[in-house]
Amino acid sequence: MMGVVDENGLYAIGEVARRTGLSVSAIRFYSDEGVVAPARVTDAGHRLYDVRGVARLEFVATLRELDTGLEDIRRLLAGGVTLTELATAHLARLDEQERRIRSRKAVLRTIARQHTEAEQVVLLHKLAGMSDEDRDRLVDEFWNEISTGLPVSSDFLGLMRNGPLVLPDEPTTQQLEAWIELADLLRNAEFRRTVREALRETFSSPGAAFMTSSTMVDAFARGGEILTRAQEAQRAGVPADSAHGREVAAAYAAHLGALAETPDGPAFRVKLAADVLDVERLHLESIEEAAAPSDPYQRYQSLVAIIDGTAQEAAEFMPFAWLSAALTASAEWTGTPEASHSER
Fold first, then answer.
1. In whole angstroms, what is the distance from residue 126 CA to residue 322 CA?
2. Is residue 148 part of a domain?
3. What does pTM read for this prediction?
4. What whole-number distance in Å separates Cα of residue 128 and Cα of residue 101?
5. Orientation angle between helical segments 320-333 and 214-235, nearest 10 degrees
6. What is the pLDDT of residues 42-88, one digit of tens each?
7. Most buried pick, 14, 67, 139, 204, via CB within 10 A?
8. Do the beta carbons of residue 165 and residue 310 sit within 8 Å?
9. 168 CB neighbour count, 10 Å cutoff
10. Which structural domain, as residue segments, surrounds residue 327?
11. 253 and 335 in a common domain
């Protein structure tokens, strides 16, 4: 039977199936489960649906395509929960499923890449699913062990650590893979010993005490603030030869001039412009070497940069070329009468 079957505008189940895209058996199932009851059942047992019933079945079909559970649908139609509440709860479940999928993919990629032994699979799965507290504890234990006895200031040690290691709430597969590798390394006694010895050798060299002093840490922080200003200006599309560019260049020249005890001037800024490009070249080389570094501490740093997102940000918005151009432009401008008047 098809179409409207009586003067009340009721539809037979076949027509309802055609209009909703549901199978006849599915419509019967929802009727038997009390989700969407027919408007009337004929003496012969045929189920008939009104327009409201057809609309509810279309709604149910949509929710089922979104993987909404039958019990949640029943509660929604009964008024026990609002659509907003249901959507919010369902979205949270999907987010959690997505996180689990990313975690599993990271573990499987690590297994495939490292030719992992069977007994290590459980460990890798646990590392991927560690809580924030467990991650903090593991990193703290690593740093407590490798830094004991290091001849550096506590401020410099904090600079080396870069603060707490935070895995984003929604990490990428690459970030999860980096964390699994890092966590595995942090648990490795040989890796900890190698890093500890490498750092001791580095910081026992002449001049290391001054370079790792609190004074130099403050200088690094100030230099970092200026580079951040340059990065923000570059990202915003501010021209390097603009007034703001000259201002950033002047701050950088003053900072480096104070450290080197060198007076500021056009020649000094031209030299700084070239030095900044050398820094960019070395930075790019360090990014390339980070893929397979021979230095264990460098590997630690590269993995941390992937996990906290600074590696991607540094690759996309390196401010060195912009700052070099700003220094060059400001060097030319500092000798003009306009600049001299401004400085007075």
1. 44
2. yes
3. 0.49
4. 11
5. 90
6. 888 889 999 888 888 888 888 888 778 888 888 888 887 787 887 88
7. 139
8. no
9. 11
10. 213-343
11. yes
